[in-house]
User: Fold this.
Amino acid sequence: MTIYILFVAIIIALLILNSSIKTNVQLFQIFALMLLVFFVGFRFETGYDWAMYRNFYEYDTFHSGIEFGYVFFIKILRYLFDDYQSLFFFTALATYIFLYLGIRKYTKHSSIALALFILIPGLFLNSLNIIRQELAIAIAFYAFSFLVDKKFFNYLFLMILAFSIHYSIVIVFFTHLVVWQYSSKVKYSFYYFLILFSLLFLKFDIGNLVYYFAKGARYEFYQTGESVSLLKILILNSLALVYVYFSPKIIDKSKYNIYIVALVVMNVVYLNVFSSVIALSRIAYYFKIFEIVLVAQLLFVFDKKIRVLALLLLVAFYSIQFLGALKVDMAETRTENNLIPYKNVLFK
Assistant:
């Protein structure tokens, strides 16, 4: 666990330096991104699906459900490189390039947004586990800006690319369209209602529906599994309500903000609806990623003292979640490819 804490501390220190030293080139920020790619891309036997992806690369065999775009991606890397590590490196590189492009597009407070990304376990730590979905999340995150800009070809190209990486992007595509079409037409009271109404789904086991529709497919196992904790759900829903309450103060700051607020609301809605099975609730990550840019902007509606206090509280909250996720990993009964101990090809 120590190496993760040290790594996060170094990244945050670099981002603080980047915010403190005003230059035209975001030198420390870029250095932080390079460290992220190194940490994730050169890991060895680290991450629950690490062995599966190594086998995809080494044996050129894939299970029937893996997306065609990622198969093509692996085949290109096999042709160019004789080392499965290239798959982890270039997946990490692509993920963080799209993430950074999106952050820079949505907010000028990019260092804060990037720091929040690192601390939210469902975002950073999952880039060591569910690597295809994390890449799709990053692509869709950046792609949405083109929908708002009405550059429809760019948007569709990126979303098709994301779909070729992870088929769950279909749900995201339709959600994007609804948000883009109606966000400017609804009142904020509707967001409160939507969040509270979605809590009713906590009593509904969505896994049974998955079994019915996906019977015989590789997603059939999603019908069962550990559910999201009620405490976590209540805290995240409460935070979303707070974000919505303060959001009107930033709507005029950027043309993207009115949509970002709606996407953050959809994050908790999907979390509530699919909370009966953690694996299913991952769909919420496609929208949770917008929380990092929303919070980065909301902090600046307060004066400096309150802003620093709010930021410290959020960092403390997500740090507790981050450490909690690592402790859960340490308690896993599996003997291989956990997040802990972390291994790297340069120091196994």
Notes: The mean pLDDT is 88. The radius of gyration is 20 Å.
